[in-house]
Amino acid sequence: MGRKTPKSKEKLDKRKEEKALLAEHTALVNKANSQTNPLSSFPAFTKFSKNGLDVTLDCKRVADMDESLIHSIFNLEKENMKNLYDECSWGWNDKKKMEEMTEEAARYLMAKNEAGELVAFSHFRFDLDYGDPVLYCYELQLKQEVRRKGLGKFMMQVLELIAFTSNLHKVILTVLKHNPAAVEFYKALKYEVDETSPQNSVFEEECHYEILSKLNKKIFKT
Ligand SMILES: CC(C)(COP(=O)(O)OP(=O)(O)OC[C@H]1O[C@@H](n2cnc3c(N)ncnc32)[C@H](O)[C@@H]1OP(=O)(O)O)[C@@H](O)C(=O)NCCC(=O)NCCS
């Protein structure tokens, strides 16, 4: 057995550093995931009464939701997104979408009207994304009649509050480029193209989606 050269020591130190960082990031995600209801720390954010809307917000893990609620969520998702999925290579598939929406890690931020009917939801998860601890917003879906009244913006602000107080590095999401309302909405909320977003190149087919994110300013000071 030969002695360690300075170069291999450098490599070893770097690997140790990377391992420590991954452990730190995993611990942040695990801590966020240990919360049953991350919204319970922010009671002021459980109501949205503005522009003629009066809704109550609630946050649940998918395992704590009953079947009829899951179906209301799925139906809203399908109503809003089926055509957009069918217009690109993703294609809509009921079974695949239901599986994704009910995976164990799925959490839901939900808005209900005074009659207790679901009017909006966000499917989100606490996760590692390329090693970074993030809140991944899988979906934000509002019924037609509650749009353009500030509820979508409020729900994204709630997700940001949850993510950043949990010391996660960013809120991240995927948006279809042929969904101009959503593109404009995230632009208005100051989401930017994430470093992990696929880049179009002359060698590749144009990509129909983009990955957008907002960084945690406490961690990434400008
Ligand atoms: C996209 C969506 C979530 C936006 O939610 P919303 O509550 O309607 O949006 P808000 O009222 O909070 O809008 C905030 C700002 O975003 C921008 N914006 C929102 N909708 C827009 C639209 N259709 N066109 C252009 N800009 C828009 C505006 O700047 C708006 O501010 P303003 O109303 O003061 O001009 C909602 O329209 C929706 O659920 N759409 C169908 C599903 C969908 O596409 N989801 C996104 C999947 S990634």
Automatic annotation (TrEMBL):
<dbReference type="InterPro" id="IPR016181">
    <property type="entry name" value="Acyl_CoA_acyltransferase"/>
</dbReference>
<dbReference type="GO" id="GO:0005634">
    <property type="term" value="C:nucleus"/>
</dbReference>
<dbReference type="GO" id="GO:1990189">
    <property type="term" value="F:protein N-terminal-serine acetyltransferase activity"/>
</dbReference>
<keyword id="KW-0808">Transferase</keyword>
<dbReference type="GO" id="GO:0005737">
    <property type="term" value="C:cytoplasm"/>
</dbReference>
<dbReference type="InterPro" id="IPR039949">
    <property type="entry name" value="NAA40"/>
</dbReference>
<comment type="similarity">
    <text>Belongs to the acetyltransferase family. NAA40 subfamily.</text>
</comment>
<dbReference type="GO" id="GO:0010485">
    <property type="term" value="F:histone H4 acetyltransferase activity"/>
</dbReference>
<keyword id="KW-0963">Cytoplasm</keyword>
<keyword id="KW-0012">Acyltransferase</keyword>
<keyword id="KW-0539">Nucleus</keyword>
<dbReference type="GO" id="GO:0043998">
    <property type="term" value="F:histone H2A acetyltransferase activity"/>
</dbReference>
<feature type="domain" description="N-acetyltransferase">
    <location>
        <begin position="68"/>
        <end position="218"/>
    </location>
</feature>
<keyword id="KW-0519">Myristate</keyword>
<dbReference type="InterPro" id="IPR000182">
    <property type="entry name" value="GNAT_dom"/>
</dbReference>
<keyword id="KW-0449">Lipoprotein</keyword>
<dbReference type="Pfam" id="PF00583">
    <property type="entry name" value="Acetyltransf_1"/>
</dbReference>
<protein>
    <recommendedName>
        <fullName>N-alpha-acetyltransferase 40</fullName>
        <ecNumber>2.3.1.257</ecNumber>
    </recommendedName>
</protein>
